[in-house]
Amino acid sequence: MITSRTNRHAVIVSATVCVAMAVGAALAAAAPFDDLRRQAPVHGNAAAATAKAATCAACHGAEGIAAAPTFPNLAGQAETYLYVQLRAFKDGARANAVMQPLAKALTDEDMRNLAAHFASLPGKAASRAMQASSRGSTLFHDGDAARGVPPCQGCHGVDGRGPHPDPASTAPQPAWSTFPVLAGQNTPYVLEQLKAYRDGTRTGTSNNRIMQGVARNLSEADMQAVADYVSTL
Amino acid sequence: MRKMLFATLAVAVALAGQRALADSSGSARVGDIQYGNALDPTGWAPLLWPDPRGFSWLHAGMMRTPSGVLYPYPPQRNEGSPLYKDSDWVYWGFLQLGYLHLGGDTKAEFFRQYAGWKSGLALGLFALYADNPKTGQYLEFRGSRLSGDDQYYRLRAGQYGRYKIEAFYRDIPYAVTTNAYPLWNGVGSTNLTLPAPLVPGGSTSAQTAATEKTRPRQTIGLTRQREGLGFEGVLYRDWIGYVSVVNEKRTGTRPWGGPMFFNYVLPDNGGILETVRPIDFTTTDVDMGLRNVGAVWQFQLDYTGSFFRNHKDQLDFQSPFRLSNVVGVPQVANIYQGQFSLEPDNDYHNLRAELSRRLKWNGQLSLAVARGTMRQNDPLLPPVTCTGTGGIFISPSADYTFNCANWNTTAALSQRTANARIDTGLLDAKITLHPSAKLGWHAGLRWYREDNKTHYLAFNPLTGQYGYIAENGSQGSVVPGEIGIFDPRNPLFASYVTQVRAIPFGYTDTVFETGIDWRVSDNNSLNLTYSFDRDQPKYRERKLVNEQRIKLAWVDRALGKATLRFSYEFAYRNGGRYDFDPYAPFYSTSLPGFVTPPLGNVAFTTDAMRKYDLSDRIEHKLRAILIYPIGDTATVSGVVYGTRDNYAGHGEVGRQATRNYGFDLSWDWQPSPLTSVSANLGRDDSRLRFSNVADHEDITGVAGRDDPSLGGPLYPLANLWQGIDHERDYNAGLTLRHDFGRVRADLGYTYTYALGKLDYLFASPAALSTTQQPFVATVGNAFPDNHYHINTLQLGFDIAFSRTLGMRVFDIFETGSFADWHYLGLQDNRVIDHKIYTDLGPQPHYSANLIGVMLNVKL
Questions:
Q1: Which of B613, B754, B737, B624 is nearest to B671 (CA)?
Q2: pLDDT score at B13
Q3: Which residues of chain A are at the B interface, by a Cβ-Cβ cutoff of 8 Å?
Q4: How far apart are CA A12 and CA B368, in angstroms?
Q5: HEC states along B736-754?
Q6: Which of B328, B356, B547, B628 could form a disulfide bond with B562, CB atoms 3.0-4.6 angstroms apart?
Q7: Identity of the residue in B60, B743, B802 whose CB atom sits nearest the CB atom of A38
Q8: B801 touches chain A (CB under 8 A)
């Protein structure tokens, strides 16, 4: 039989639990974070975005080719990737002093249409060939297992123009449509983003967390090599 | 010895300082695989809450094993903090410290069988981890303490790819019984003495019972104290060395015997005592070796040693009862002192070399050779401790006495030390080949020998007699002539059958196995294995035993996402001629001067007896496993199995047949990292049928007593009996965990039920013991059922106050019931005639509760 002393003890413990639960509930909420793992592909109306795209053209070019290499080229970029980036700027999951106020003014439909617009533009053509044995090519295609660096092509495609998932696979699938096209991207922009992943200043989405793990194992020279290489694709 | 080992360890550690690039990964070679206790069997529970971020940032889905079983979500990772500003070292820690309160039947045996529960302060878990990602160096500490008898601490350190060091200390309790009332003083020592007013060899049953009632309740059990130290690391290029030393000290007590010859033929004529023996063992295990892991060749040289030391060599005990002989003559001997020789110190050494090479077709060839030896050479104890005269004096021509002085010193022994030794040898060869992705083949040949070189002769040079005085002389003081000795010069003992030599049991076992794996299609694969086991035991009933075994396994993945595994196994064992008495060379019958009585010697046993490990046997085994994924988040799995063994043939006695079948069902559901539910249900049935024939006791003094045949005068068919042992076990469990955010809840329930039934049949009342004859009408055909029934419910909450501070509140409630007919009636009387019982068995019903309030601190 359980003694009455034990029962008294149980009452004290129960009361303690209630107090503790109340204290826990009073604590604050976490920072904005976009979990993209269940993100379905989005589709907008490219034609409907023409007017709003004029604002973007100042930096990203009327044809989606950036005016300066520190800005990203948007032409030919993955539609869903562009949409989730605009959404991340809007909800604060991605910080940028210029983009955040611009994105705040957009509706969800605007963001879909803008994404469709830039995705429909022809991407930048390969500028020059780079040696297959270059460090950038090696990292992009094979990674560096000794340093824990996976090959970029696994998610960004062997040609850097987006992933090529196996439709027959029964394994859980990533949200492929949220992965960006890297081919023809500007070297300074790619380099800056890799450093942002490494330094933890671009962490607001689940995809950023993947890139954090990759960038942490890259040296600055490796980052430069990869950024150089993708710009030539 | 110990100095040498630690010196070797120091050299190995020093060598690890050399820079080397090869991988030093390998299995842990020191300590236990699992560290935990009753509060937290996993040893990591506070750190195993799933990471709410899920399995991977790549996808939201669950990962499954190739068979379709869900992997658990990974535990929440502690990112850690720099050890100091700008340090490359990162650390994290966790401390769970609090108060446990026990209530209810806290002494119940099943509640604390392997748990050192104690009300008071308890350390749930202290974990500390630090690593340097730049250098790969790490340090990990883990510890828990419920009480002084139940605690563990483990330290691991090393550098990935170079070396690792591990040290541990732990205490593990084991309560054999919490309901013991030993009669004797000195429990735990080597000398059990009777408490006043009992007089050794001079007290009645009633006096003993009265004293026994005053004895306090005690717990009988032991604690294992284990500590160890180990190192493994790269010595040079691909050469990896390792060494470990583990020391285990077991201290405590255990229920034991105390025979002063049996006490059932007549009242007051012997003594059967349940004593308590000390446990004071030390076992030191050493493992050291060297291996080379190359791309093509692999080599390993390994030494293992085990050194057992018993610090209490014997147990002396006193009997309160006076012996009386069965022939009614005045008792010349009042033997009341008994002595057990306890386990001797012994050493074990084994040296093993393995070489393997990669072959074409994704193959591997492995060869292993090992030599070992087990030795003990403790000083032997004198055969008896009695003084004066033992035995029975009927008349000058029927003088069955012996002089204790001739037997109570080591001068009565043929050798002063045991000089016992068993050598072992092993040769093992295996080859595997995969000529294609769909086909695999393997074959192996294993040869193992145990060569027993122990040759002890029980000969007393002081008297010229053979044998060993039984039970300190008590047996020969109750029944005339049953002293236990053979004397070729004394007609009273010249026909006495007794064992005079140690039997050097040994065996040679050769096993050949071959099998193929064939992937029939993408969803189906077959495996067929054949083995032939040739066992050649020495000094056993058969000189040769062969067993052939064939196993067919089928794996099917064509049922949607489900995996079905099915296997059937058939084995047939037979062998050479069965000799029901191969032990004659070790008995007095083989000695010169042995006089075979005119009626012959009483048969050793019936020639129809077949010992179960050597008898013919046919075995069938069947097993089916289904793993069925339901959606992305749940799995149902089921196992059904059955085994049938048929042993002795028609007209043979011994083990007849065994049968075992059962099932296990489980359901696991992980709808998100925040929630997990699992349930299981199982049942296991086993049945053992055995038979024997009671000897016809009235015939032992007349013609026909040497006839071993079943159905003969000594073993008549009317004396046949059969026992059927049934065991049925049920188990069920449910676990539920949910993370509410600041509060995490866990619920666990387990149910265990075991039912044991022992039925018996007999051809006629003659099969029963002579003492049962007056009760034949009430004997029936079964013992009362035994059962064991336990329910355990656990509910806990983890509450986070802040990022680093929280608490855990939990309750464990356990209730159980127990029944075992062996203990029936002992609650009322622990002394019955000349029988003394100590252990009253587990409580028939109990309920116990444990409440804990623990503070959780993340460091």
A1: B737
A2: 32
A3: 1-3, 5-6, 9-10, 13, 16-17, 20-21, 23-25, 27, 35, 37-38, 170-175, 206-207, 209-210, 213
A4: 63
A5: EEEECCCEEEEEEEEEEEE
A6: B628
A7: B60
A8: yes
Verdict on whether the full-model pTM lies above 0.95:
no
β-pair partners for B251: B223, B280
**Contact between residue B460 and residue B415 where contact means Cβ atoms under 8 Å apart:** no
The tens digit of pLDDT for each residue in B778-822 reads 999 999 999 999 999 999 999 999 989 999 999 999 999 999 999
Burial class (CB in 10 A: 0-12, 13-18, 19+), B367: middle
Structure tokens at B430: 């295996």
Residues of A in contact with B800 (CB under 8 A): 24
Q: How far is CA B395 from the centre of its chain?
A: 51
Q: Cα torsion for B227, B233, B239, B242, to the nearest 10°?
A: 0
Q: Do A20 and B54 touch (CB under 8 A)?
A: no
Alpha carbon distance B852, B103 (integer Å)? 11
Contacts of A6 in chain B (CB under 8 A): 101, 103-104, 849, 851
Spatial separation of the C-alpha atoms in residues A172 and B486, rounded to whole Å: 80
- Provide the 10 A C-beta neighbour count for residue A230: 22
Helices A108-120 + A79-91 axis angle, to 10: 140
Quote the CA–CA distance of B74 and B633 in Å, as a whole number: 15
Helix, strand, or coil (residue B570): strand
Contacts of A105 (CB under 8 A, 6+ apart): none
How large is the average pLDDT for residues B326-350?
94
Query: Burial level of B295, CB count in 10 A (0-12/13-18/19+)?
Result: exposed
What confidence score (pLDDT) does residue B30 get?
Answer: 63
pLDDT at B707: 95
A90 alpha carbon, distance to own chain's centre = 14
Give the CA angle between residues B310, B315, B318 to the nearest 5°: 170
What letter does residue B710 receive in the DSSP assignment? Answer: B
| Residue A206 in tokens | 């689940």
Full 3-state SS string of B455-471: CCECEECCCCEEECCHH
Pick from B60, B104, B853: CB nearest A37? B60
Residue of B nearest to A19 (CA): B799
> Among A3, A173, A175, whose Cβ lies nearest the Cβ of B104?
A3
Chain A residue numbers with beta carbons less than 8 Å from the beta carbon of B742 are 21, 24-25, 27
Burial of B169 by CB count in 10 Å (0-12 exposed, 13-18 middle, 19+ buried)?
middle
Q: Does B103 touch chain A (CB under 8 A)?
A: yes
ipTM of the complex: 0.83
What average pLDDT does the segment B836-845 reach? Answer: 95
Per-residue pLDDT reduced to its tens digit, B446-493: 999 999 999 999 999 999 999 999 999 999 999 999 999 999 999 999
Of B637, B632, B628, nearest to B678 by C-alpha is B637
Q: Given CA atoms B39, B40, B43, B47 in this order, what sign does their dihedral have?
A: negative
CA gap B633, B359 in Å, rounded: 42
List the one residue out of B603, B715, B698, B594 whose CA is nearest residue B652.
B715
Amino acid at B202: G
Chain centroid offset of residue B670 CA: 37
Task: Give the H/E segment covering residue A91.
Answer: helix A79-91
A29 token code pair = 């909420």
Residue-wise pLDDT tens digits, B604-645: 999 999 999 999 999 999 999 999 999 888 999 999 999 999
The CA–CA distances, whole Å, from B214 to B196, B320, B337, B362, B839 equal 11, 16, 23, 73, 15
